[in-house]
């Protein structure tokens, strides 16, 4: 692996590491050593930028990393982002002669998803889906290089932590992700086991559904006879089936139910329409006749009233005339004959002046008699009119009676049609229930037999899958892998003379920490004292894991980067560890010796990159030094500071 930085002027700063070896980058503080881990992680696909702001971010325009696989190299370039995150990238693949590009060749041709897929494919990470536990809100995800890289970095804050063992373990869901993917990277969980586990889950669910169906069918079978009997009885009452239908065995039940479903009632809509039209016509005719009868009655009432009033008038006139005729008894006969009114009607003596009253009364009597005679003619004619009008009313009354009779007949016919409609509605309702029954399955007994046969088949499948799963148990394989890694950790811890290393040191795959199995119980890393132990156990755990990854050909990048592993032995504000005469140099030497020996044991299958203040004089240590950033040497060359970049 090699990496580098471009500035805005196109100049490039390269840092080359030897493959399959211990690589030590030593130097003073504030020379950019810690940024090396951030640059590598950023170039390998992290979207969030953790490269420190300042000299590096002010003078860098692009970063690059070249990673090498068995027979090819992948060049990854990432632009210096303007914000806190970016997805942009440049990816180029080639042979083992692929080298860093020139500034003019830099271009964005991919994103971090393409970058992830490229590295995942070349690491030969299999298609393996992590399914969260039931009830979890987390989504399933496929294992990729992103999870593998959690085992490849230990920055300055992580390597000396007693609470965090793995890179980014404190971030949201990262601890759970590491816990879920560790069995795969250790080889304890395989895609075949994942497929087997999903098949087991699917078979258990299918068996459970079948058993639920059996229970439902058994309960339904107890109720079916009464339901079907009621349906057939209803069909008989509606004349859809003969009266003897349904008597006897269950044979033919489905055919009877299907015949009920196939029944179609006669369409009486035309008949209903004609009756409705005739009823409307009769109703209109009845209203017309009643109106005509009311008119005739009004005329008769008026004529009768006039006739009555005239009768009263004649009676009064007759009475008055009779009173006036009494004059015939008092007036002398000569007066009656010749109209002489000069004689007193009482004494027959002559009057000095004639009595004109008698003449007036006689005139009035004549007038009354004339009027009485005339009124008799009018009354006779009016009576004739009344009789004629009454005669015209009788046919109307007869017509109204006929109208009412015909309306009653139409109403009875409509009632019969309504009864037929009610029957059709009852038939439709019955057919709906029959359809529901047929959907349930009339032959429940046969269906129940099939369900029980299916249950036995699924039980057999489940037994075979469980047997295979027990013989290839991921939990057992994980315990075996953890035991092997823990044995290496114990050996490494004893070499570093860490506290508790006289006991068995173990990797805890659940809490993701290191524990020591003391006779009095389990002691986790968080309860151990001193930064020397915390750093030491981080080195022990990661070196042991990478030893397992390499020897078992697991798809994890063959490098691990440690930032300041010797910090426990120097003051917090150390500028250059080589100036500290009070440091425990033997303890420092043991750390680097352990890293050298593990790399040597793996014969080129592991690259360890250490960024640290320490600079031992041992020949093997100096052979491992790839960069010494002292005396003005740093990641960003001093002559870049005057380039005007940034």
UniProtKB/TrEMBL annotation:
It comes from Citricoccus alkalitolerans. Signal peptide: none annotated. This is DUF3732 domain-containing protein. It comes from the Bacteria. Residues 200-227 form a coiled coil. Keywords: Coiled coil.
């Amino acid at each position: 692996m090699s990496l580098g930085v471009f500035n805005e002027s196109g100049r490039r700063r390269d840092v080359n590491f030897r493959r399959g070896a211990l690589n030590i980058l030593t130097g003073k503080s504030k020379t950019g050593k810690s940024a090396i881990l951030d640059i590598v992680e950023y170039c390998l696909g992290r979207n969030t930028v953790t490269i420190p702001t300042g000299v590096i971010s002010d003078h860098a325009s692009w970063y690059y990393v070249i990673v090498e696989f068995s027979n090819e190299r992948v060049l990854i370039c990432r632009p210096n982002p303007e914000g806190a995150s970016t997805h942009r990238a440049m990816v180029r693949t080639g042979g083992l002669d692929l080298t860093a590009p020139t500034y003019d060749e830099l271009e964005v041709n991919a994103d971090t998803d393409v970058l992830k897929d490229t590295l995942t494919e070349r690491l030969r990470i299999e298609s393996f889906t992590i399914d969260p536990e039931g009830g979890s809100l987390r989504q399933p995800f496929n294992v990729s290089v992103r999870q593998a890289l959690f085992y490849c970095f230990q920055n300055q804050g992580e390597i000396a932590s007693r609470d965090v063992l793995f890179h980014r373990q404190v971030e949201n869901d990262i601890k759970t992700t590491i816990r879920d993917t560790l069995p795969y990277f250790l080889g304890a969980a395989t895609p075949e086991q994942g497929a087997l586990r999903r098949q087991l889950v699917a078979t258990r669910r299918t068996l459970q559904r079948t058993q639920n169906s059996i229970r439902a069918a058994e309960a339904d079978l107890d109720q079916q006879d009464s339901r079907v009997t009621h349906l057939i009885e209803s069909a008989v009452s509606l004349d859809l089936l003969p009266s003897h239908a349904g008597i006897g065995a269950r044979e033919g039940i489905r055919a009877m139910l299907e015949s009920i479903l196939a029944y179609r009632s006669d369409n009486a809509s035309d008949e209903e329409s004609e009756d409705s039209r005739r009823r409307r016509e009769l109703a209109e005719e009845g209203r017309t006749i009643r109106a005509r009868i009311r008119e005739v009655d009004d005329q008769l009432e008026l004529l009768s009233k006039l006739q009555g009033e005239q009768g009263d008038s004649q009676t009064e006139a007759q009475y008055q005339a009779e009173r006036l005729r009494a004059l015939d008894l008092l007036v002398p006969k000569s007066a009656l004959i010749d109209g002489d009114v000069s004689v007193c009607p009482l004494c027959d003596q002559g009057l000095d002046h004639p009595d004109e009253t008698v003449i007036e009364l006689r005139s009035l009597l004549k007038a009354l008699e004339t009027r009485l005679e005339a009124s008799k003619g009018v009354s006779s004619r009016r009576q004739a009119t009344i009789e004629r009008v009454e005669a015209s009313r009788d046919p109307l009354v007869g017509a109204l009676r006929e109208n009412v009779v015909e309306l009653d007949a139409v109403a009875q016919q409509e009632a019969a049609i309504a009864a037929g409609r009610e029957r059709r509605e009852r038939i439709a309702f019955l057919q709906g229930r029959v359809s529901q029954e047929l959907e349930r399955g009339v032959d429940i007994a046969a269906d129940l037999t099939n369900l029980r046969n299916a249950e036995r088949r699924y039980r057999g499948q489940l037994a075979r899958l469980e047997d295979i799963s027990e013989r290839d148990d991921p939990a057992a394989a994980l315990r075996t892998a953890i035991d092997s890694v823990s044995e290496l950790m114990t050996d490494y811890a004893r070499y570093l003379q860490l506290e508790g290393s006289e006991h068995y040191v173990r990797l805890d795959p659940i809490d993701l920490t290191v524990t020591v199995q003391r006779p009095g119980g389990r002691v986790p890393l968080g309860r151990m004292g001193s930064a020397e132990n915390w750093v030491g156990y981080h080195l022990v755990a990661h070196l042991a894991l990478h030893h397992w990854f390499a020897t078992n050909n697991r798809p994890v990048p063959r490098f691990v980067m440690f930032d300041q592993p010797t910090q426990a032995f120097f003051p917090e504000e150390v500028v250059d560890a080589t100036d500290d005469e009070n440091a425990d140099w033997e303890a420092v030497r043991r750390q680097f010796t352990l890293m050298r020996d593990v790399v040597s044991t793996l014969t080129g299958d592991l690259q360890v990159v250490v960024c640290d203040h320490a600079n031992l004089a041992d020949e093997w240590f100096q052979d491992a030094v790839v960069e010494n950033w002292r005396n003005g040497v740093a990641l960003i060359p001093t002559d870049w500071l005057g380039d005007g970049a940034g």
